[in-house]
């Protein structure tokens, strides 16, 4: 019997690693977002024209649609299985798309611009056209003459979610409006509150993105606080964060409406899903509750899939795997499968129960602090994987937040870290993790850019440490170090920090640009934008002088070293090297400015000579020996012993 | 890659090996074998064909020295138990049967040595008798009783030396000054033997030790050494040498610094059916071995076969199988399939050239320690290149002195996607390197927001610093004292008793890796058992804080617990759970239930199914009310299925069932749900709901929204097995 599977990857391998599977589940918990944008006179009003380049040109409604457009493109990359839709309300026109099963009662002034679904290339195109083509936009974006009640919109959203995304684990309504009191009457208000309650019972979260008009702030308490529920009823304290109100800026006071709305929406773009929720034992007998989040994770592009081209329209195929016994090619039921380890040419089997016991003998999932060490005990070389963010939760232990906060503040002020025994999930391998504090950080506009909390940095075990290959060192001189330090000072990144947001993944961006162009059947772009390529001109301008200085000092130092009798330095074919280092830079006209140590072919053999003296030549790899010999026109055939012999003969003949 | 090895174990099987000495619960032989099995099984687990193992017993009942000596005179009571070969599981089993203490004291240890030397020499020479490159070892365990012919010890010692064999001798209760063991009341005969053997081992430069130490060391996990292999060989550049003059180019190589050692993975097997008949017949003889251990040879590997389906264009809603020939590669862009023909497959790939280029420099202390997201590597200068060495050293030292790190872009091979690396200086006695680790791109950062931990914002925007979620001074002080008291940086002790860092990386062993290795090897030497052994203590050592330290800080701990005042949320109260709970309220705290009209019965609205069902439940306190709401919900679900065009309503029906199931579990009325779902199953499979609805049943099965068992809800009288059985369609 075949089991269904969602994976479409060709040649998909069965993965036995429990951890990976969990990771995947975490990602595939599906999310559906319905944008509801208020189309009223004030939402369509453009800011007064201004000469300032930074001033707003968009009306709040257009800004909202632009945000939706950006978000849609982003989500295709980051959440390819998630749904999105756009509902305009307050429009003159009403349209809920054909074939819709959404009731017969009709929803006046609700215009479903994009049905709730995984976006298609056409959806992206349609939305882009609307954002870019004002005439077309004007046709749809005409406000109704009568005021429109919010209750209809909420019920409309209810129906859309019920029919289009019935069993999505996360469903959210993004409501963009500048009207903080849309109710016409007491009855209208009560109906709206009831409809909001329906959405809550349905499991739909309303995210409000309020926009304040000039001279009129947006007061949530007037109306919206009756509609919006704390997002996590079991953990009311975990999220008291509401999006900040976006203001329509006057001319040129920095951040534009669009940017501000974008940042506000971006922070809600991915539903916050906990990776785990486990006890955190700070001390024996003192446990609190924490949730773990992956705030840093490598974003990959979608895996390729198989497309069936036998029909008129290409179709994505669904693959399923069945198991066959290797000896008889008989189809095997999953229950017949036994897991076994290969050992000594045979299989060592354990029962299912024993397998569980083997993996779970380390105890229940927990983060247990073993003790504390100074932060300096956590060198960068000890990194093994990405860090996990943890944040307190009051769901199981009341008082978790204050204890967590006390620990976090103490670790920050004393520059200390915790060391913990960490089992994230049942069946997961235990690890030792360093617990380091993360300070809350704000951007220039006062928005949080880094949340406050603790980070679990997994540490390597003795088994995971690799030795650095043996090497002979040629230590830098004070002069060289000093000049190089000047180069370093000249080439500091802005503020001396690495800011990930400045470096989009060029491979990922290129992939989706091409894919989008192909999906929309447009011309392919020819130049990738790659912000990770160093700014060569700036490097030359700012540090060129010092690099030249370094080159000169370096050359001098090498000459001294070579003429000295230091055993560890080249006494190799001086002549050849001299010729090389003069030839290569000559192409560019200037000598001495390049510390060019060309490829292997110029390797001196100084090390081999040295190793021969020390009698450690046999430690060299065959590859190195062969390279060395071939550079000197010697034969590279034979076994390692032969090669070594030949190297020795050569060195002898040269008197080395 | 390790070199070739040949190891012969010489095991004393004399009568005295069956004794239990010095209050041990094991016989001398069992104790010795603890060490030998550990060594042999770890060899077996490497699965290397070039690692040969042989076993010779002496003081055995029989004599079996094969063709190694022409005349077995002088070699009585010596047996070759396993010739030198790659040791496999059947060899282990055979050996286990052979390793029984004998009824004799006779058998000369030095003669056994001669046999072992012969075995090694034979197995490690080529046809013309020239020795091949092998690591040769003899490991001998004995309790030191029995006669020793000491007439040709010099000859043996020099032979061992000439053949470059490493001899290790481990004695049961042998004196060992270094380890600090001396046996009291040692039999004079044994003392003399110990002296002779020690002399022999010293003469050939071998190792002589007491067994206790060796057994003790088996408890320490062995770390597998891996030979460094470079994952990048190329240049480290600053600037663009093609367009500018002032640039820096250094030839470098990159080697792993940390690499997670993975535990062995289990593979899938299936019991071979063609042998099933044979199994019955041989069962009587197989009972000696006992259980499924013997199935080793009767398991067949499992192959995966993939089948591809698409929706049939001529028959919407139905699927059809398609042939792999008709498939081409493509990608999904949203829900649009973009098909890319084989010849175009490179179009989505970013063209890159190999290289490691410095982008710029950052302050070391401003680099957040939680950003690095990968394992680490060493970057060192090309091995035979002095200029590269000097230049890289300048960079390393300059980074070190300026307290800066470099940010670089790495393309490990032509065409590979670039990644951003953090380069940090690493300077130790004989090592200078850059350590690199990957940093996130913009897309890798998830911008979730979390409330501040040291202050609260009210709805009106006011900042509060006193709140039950914010620690007061007392708690801050208690936490600070506890953290300082629990410092591990000087808690450890080195060999001389000086304080040092406790729990250094080198002292921690991967628990799962060694646990699985341990249990496989244990299982290979234990045919019958009642329960699996616990993990070795060394793997659990760092799972709890050191007890001594906890004793020391008891005062700080008590204060911390008191000031923290953490209370566990009690598990849900028994009885009528949800019916008495506080209903969820919006931010304003408005009582929406009052608005909905709590008294009147809420009608289930098919257009608003889930919410109205929930509201109906919360409006009633009576069993009849719940029953009525559930019945009506059931009716609506049936109607959804009946009116479904193809599978169009299945999602909604599934969600409705799921909600009903959860709500009724919460209300502790599993019976109401179980009755409805049983009927529903009957109706679906009986094709009473608008024809063939098997896919709907599969949805119920796959989402596991069938019977509520008594593990899920205490009030249910459905057993787990019954609930499982329910999912099997019939």
UniProtKB/TrEMBL annotation, chain A:
Residues 1-11, 49-59 have a biased composition (Basic and acidic residues). Its EC number is 3.6.4.12. Keywords: ATP-binding, Chromosome, DNA damage, DNA recombination, DNA repair, DNA-binding, Helicase, Hydrolase, Kinase, Nucleotide-binding, Nucleus, Telomere, Transferase. The keyword Oxidoreductase does not apply. Residues 617-651 form the SAP domain. Residues 12-23 have a biased composition (Acidic residues). GO terms for molecular function: ATP binding; damaged DNA binding; DNA helicase activity; double-stranded DNA binding; hydrolase activity; kinase activity; telomeric DNA binding. Its main location: nucleus. It catalyses: ATP + H2O = ADP + phosphate + H(+). Residues 1-26, 39-59, 594-616 are annotated as: Disordered. The keyword Hydrolase applies. Belongs to the ku70 family. Single-stranded DNA-dependent ATP-dependent helicase. Involved in non-homologous end joining (NHEJ) DNA double strand break repair. DNA-binding is sequence-independent but has a high affinity to nicks in double-stranded DNA and to the ends of duplex DNA. Binds to naturally occurring chromosomal ends, and therefore provides chromosomal end protection. Required also for telomere recombination to repair telomeric ends in the absence of telomerase. KU70, of the KU70/KU80 heterodimer, binds to the stem loop of TLC1, the RNA component of telomerase. Involved in telomere maintenance. This is ATP-dependent DNA helicase II subunit 1.
From TrEMBL, chain B:
Belongs to the ku80 family. PANTHER family: KU AUTOANTIGEN DNA HELICASE (PTHR12604), X-RAY REPAIR CROSS-COMPLEMENTING PROTEIN 5 (PTHR12604:SF4). It catalyses: ATP + H2O = ADP + phosphate + H(+). The keyword DNA repair applies. Keywords: ATP-binding, Chromosome, DNA damage, DNA recombination, DNA repair, DNA-binding, Helicase, Hydrolase, Nucleotide-binding, Nucleus, Telomere. It is found in: Chromosome, Telomere; Nucleus. This is ATP-dependent DNA helicase II subunit 2. Single-stranded DNA-dependent ATP-dependent helicase. Involved in non-homologous end joining (NHEJ) DNA double strand break repair. DNA-binding is sequence-independent but has a high affinity to nicks in double-stranded DNA and to the ends of duplex DNA. Binds to naturally occurring chromosomal ends, and therefore provides chromosomal end protection. Required also for telomere recombination to repair telomeric ends in the absence of telomerase. KU70, of the KU70/KU80 heterodimer, binds to the stem loop of TLC1, the RNA component of telomerase. Involved in telomere maintenance. Residues 562-589 are annotated as: Disordered. GO terms for cellular component: chromosome, telomeric region; Ku70:Ku80 complex. The lineage of its organism: Eukaryota, Fungi, Dikarya, Ascomycota, Pezizomycotina. InterPro entries: DNA_bd_Ku70/Ku80, Ku80, Ku_C_sf, Ku_N, Ku_PK_bind, SPOC-like_C_dom_sf, vWFA_dom_sf. Pfam families: Ku (PF02735), Ku_N (PF03731), Ku_PK_bind (PF08785). GO terms for biological process: DNA recombination; double-strand break repair via nonhomologous end joining; telomere maintenance. Transmembrane segments: none annotated. One of its GO terms (molecular function) is ATP binding. The keyword Cell cycle does not apply. SUPFAM superfamilies: C-terminal domain of Ku80, SPOC domain-like, vWA-like. Residues 569-580 have a biased composition (Basic residues). Its EC number is 3.6.4.12. Residues 319-456 form the Ku domain.
